[in-house]
Automatic annotation (TrEMBL):
<dbReference type="InterPro" id="IPR002104">
    <property type="entry name" value="Integrase_catalytic"/>
</dbReference>
<comment type="similarity">
    <text>Belongs to the 'phage' integrase family.</text>
</comment>
<dbReference type="Pfam" id="PF02899">
    <property type="entry name" value="Phage_int_SAM_1"/>
</dbReference>
<feature type="domain" description="Tyr recombinase">
    <location>
        <begin position="128"/>
        <end position="318"/>
    </location>
</feature>
<dbReference type="InterPro" id="IPR010998">
    <property type="entry name" value="Integrase_recombinase_N"/>
</dbReference>
<dbReference type="InterPro" id="IPR044068">
    <property type="entry name" value="CB"/>
</dbReference>
<protein>
    <submittedName>
        <fullName>Tyrosine-type recombinase/integrase</fullName>
    </submittedName>
</protein>
<dbReference type="InterPro" id="IPR013762">
    <property type="entry name" value="Integrase-like_cat_sf"/>
</dbReference>
<dbReference type="InterPro" id="IPR050090">
    <property type="entry name" value="Tyrosine_recombinase_XerCD"/>
</dbReference>
<dbReference type="InterPro" id="IPR004107">
    <property type="entry name" value="Integrase_SAM-like_N"/>
</dbReference>
<feature type="domain" description="Core-binding (CB)">
    <location>
        <begin position="31"/>
        <end position="105"/>
    </location>
</feature>
<dbReference type="Pfam" id="PF00589">
    <property type="entry name" value="Phage_integrase"/>
</dbReference>
<keyword id="KW-0238">DNA-binding</keyword>
<dbReference type="InterPro" id="IPR011010">
    <property type="entry name" value="DNA_brk_join_enz"/>
</dbReference>
<keyword id="KW-0229">DNA integration</keyword>
<keyword id="KW-0233">DNA recombination</keyword>
Amino acid sequence: MAHDLIPLHAGSSTLPALVAASGERAGLCFLEFFAAAIRNPHTRRAYGQAAGAFLDWCAAAGLPSLAAVQPMHVAAWIELQTREHSAPTAKQRLAALRHLFDWLVTGQVLPANPAAVVRGPRHSALKGKTPVLDAAEARQLLDSIDVATPAGLRDRALIALMVYSFALVGAATAMRVEDVFTQNRRLWVRLREKGGKRHEMPCHHTLEEYLHAYLDGTGIVTDPKGPLFRTIGRGTGRLTRTALPQSNVYAMVQRRAAAAGIGTRIGNHTFRATGITAYLKNGGTLENAAAMANHASTRTTQLYDRRRDDISLEEVERIKF
């Protein structure tokens, strides 16, 4: 059912009031947009939250139905988002409205898209905001993990996978055991990135070592169709057959970083940026880094390149009295 596929309305199982007031066809088209037009669950959730918040705002402003929504309403709401949130967030929410209203126009619910002419805030990013570990900190974190337990073997393998293969956490947690395989006498990993893109790459020798230790040490190598990274059973200390959620990975990263004495406030995305920066510092090319990260453009990869941070620090130290 479409109701199970989308975040309908701020955690509710009912349609937004403006959609419900616009008739059965509008309600069906609204549900179809989230069920059929958006495959990525994270995008679906973000777009659902944006649509719900905007339609709530419109209802509070006294608009009776979707047909009453005008460009000035969209522009006013986006201006409010720009004041309260970052420019990328406001731009994403405008994109959600544009796509939703496009779908409603195509479905003959509305005659025109009220978000089409609205301009979002200007934003140009030359460097990402993700905190990055230097090589010594990354090594310190990996070496600090006690691998005498299944949880330790899992956590070291997962962090190493994100560092050495530039894997997104979503792609890592979606892996099955069979996505670690041998080819040309070398271990490879198979990742499914955003948009369903399949990406395969050979393992760095350190990652190969950690993955072998994890697979053999926990026995999950005999369960090829099962999730690669799994939760730990409460009170047992053993791996379950439930895939590890991304929120659990974040909590694990925070716990491991604190235990290792890492002062940098890191997150799941830190390891992708850490790996790319280390690769480039050691003579790697931006083009190859983009291919390894499965980026369509090197402009995206440049957001993860934090080599200039070191240059900035060196220059700051020139200020002497």
